[in-house]
């Protein structure tokens, strides 16, 4: 979870993620973790800036040969 997604927007000072969306996200992650566990896998969940968290995970695991990601499309106003 990137803390920047839970701060106020710079345009209207409204939260980027309100309480209902946050609850939905948490329930979705919990459900995904349970589904993966039933299939013999797991889900790593971390809080922090992705660029820091991914670096730390790669360092921790030590045997990473590739990292795949997608960039969020941002609307330019």
Automatic annotation (TrEMBL):
Keywords: Chromophore. It holds the Pfam family DNA_photolyase. InterPro entries: Crypto/Photolyase_N_sf (IPR036155), Cryptochrome/DNA_photolyase_1 (IPR002081), DNA_photolyase_N (IPR006050), Rossmann-like_a/b/a_fold (IPR014729). One of its GO terms (biological process) is photoreactive repair. This is CRYD protein. GO terms for molecular function: damaged DNA binding; deoxyribodipyrimidine photo-lyase activity; FAD binding. Residues 1-77 form the Photolyase/cryptochrome alpha/beta domain. The lineage of its organism: Eukaryota, Metazoa, Chordata, Craniata, Vertebrata. It comes from the Eukaryota. SUPFAM superfamilies: Cryptochrome/photolyase, N-terminal domain. The gene is Crydash_1.
